[in-house]
Design goal:
The protein is 50% helix and 12% strand. The chain is built from 6 helices and 6 strands.
């Protein structure tokens, strides 16, 4: 069994990264996000939350114009990843982060889920790169390096 102290930490994937993977309007961003997510998924390091699944489904239909069937198929693929369930306790943690960090509640819920899963990195385009919130470092997909 691997020594947890020397295990490579997991990376939490924000919804916007998964949306960019499916967005054909910006092929360079799509390629960048697909490369990062494929690397993380291939090494078993990618983690998401139920919030990410919900947001991905609605945003992929609304913003990308995917059919509900296609969006559901993509969600089905992401459901295979380790998934943090949003609970009342996690919502309470997010409220505290929202108040302390001045980030949106929804972003705070993503950060709280990442922290609860033990992730040290949140891959997102929505927050300030380099910022550390609740022990989770914010990293943009364009500067992410699998380490």
């Amino acid at each position: 069994m691997a020594d947890p102290a020397h295990a490579t930490p997991s990376v939490f994937l924000d919804t916007n990264v998964l949306i960019d993977c499916a967005d054909h309007r910006d092929l360079s961003r799509q390629k960048l996000c697909r490369t990062a997510t494929a690397s993380l998924m291939g090494t078993g390091r990618a983690i998401i939350s139920t919030q990410v699944l919900q947001e991905f489904y609605t945003a992929s239909i609304r913003k990308l114009g995917l059919s509900p069937e296609t969006a559901r198929e993509l969600v089905g693929g992401y459901r295979r990843l380790p998934t943090v369930t949003v609970t009342p306790d996690l919502i309470d943690q997010a409220i505290g982060l929202h108040q302390a960090s001045q980030i949106s509640f929804w972003d705070a819920l993503i950060v709280a889920a990442a922290a609860s899963a033990g992730c040290k990195v949140l891959l997102t385009a929505d927050l300030n790169a380099g910022q550390i919130i609740a022990g989770v470092e914010i990293v943009r997909p364009d500067i992410f390096q699998l380490g």
